[in-house]
Amino acid sequence: MVHNSKYSKFDKPLLVDYLATKQVTKSLLKYYSLKNENELLNKLKSDFYYLSCRDISQNESCFPFYRGPKLKITDTKRICPLGIHWKRLVYDDKFGVDEAINSPLSSEFIKEEDILNLKLPDPRWFDFSPLTKECDLNAKRIIVGGLWSAIHGDSYRMMGYENFLLNIALNKNLVQLLVNRMTDFYIEMNTRYFEVVKDKMDVFFMGNDFGSQSGLMISEEDWYEIYYNNYKKLIDLAHSFNLKVMVHSCGSIEPLIPYFIKLGVDIIDPVQTTAKGMDPQALGEKYGKKISFHGAIDTQSVIPYGTSEDIETHVSILIRHLNKNKNYIAAPSNNFMTGTPPQNIDTVYETINKLKSNEFLQ
To answer: The whole model's pTM is what?
Structure first.
């Protein structure tokens, strides 16, 4: 069950989730001779469903819900509602990420008035009402949604990453102002979203990557100063709608976990155990009673390249260390990527579901 959950959907000794690129899902449907994603989720015994409107910048998942001025999109490039120019990569409905190539605040000489005058989309340009049907069709699963709310990612893409880091060092007030503006924008957007799906959605999923393989991308002190209070606003909003909160951050983020716990985060994703300080045994022992972990199944090396024995051992060890408090969500450490053998993914879920049904979890 998820930490402090009162929902019966979460009341299981081990929850299971499936996340993959569109191409991997297609290969699994063929492998199992299944017709659609719902049949696949049933086959894998996944407990979760992700609503289709996820992001307004990095991918195109929210474009079907957009009713504003016509967006500039070609076969190779697009300009998102935030004004960021993107190179279109292999498009993936909910979780794909394109490549930012130009930004509205990328000048080295931006001033406060440039940030204050930045035109953000009108939240009224988005119609979230179709999400109610999507919720109803998947009501038996734990429904995850909300906007990605990349107050860090959108901000550094707007400035350009190098300028963003320089401004943290030399003009932190500019970064703070932009992050504050993005937070206010996502507060309004998510409020409209939550009002449509209230009593139907279960988990608010938001994401910003603060970690690399070896440590935080910015100092812990800068993170606290710039992001802590803004995260609190978004998390408190979700809790006011009786939603659980799952926070995504790739990489080595162990120093931030105590802050997430203090903020009331319910679930941390994706738990990249190959990164520094992210050993699953240590994380489980130190934080397992206070927060749930979602992910950890290694999509970088073990699952794509391991033997069936490697995969079975890996999954068993993770469940042993992260599910001592019956609150781990067995899931990949990132989307299963294109090229991952379907039989290896089958081994992952065969192992999980075998362990669910025996004394291992008792």
So the answer is: 0.95
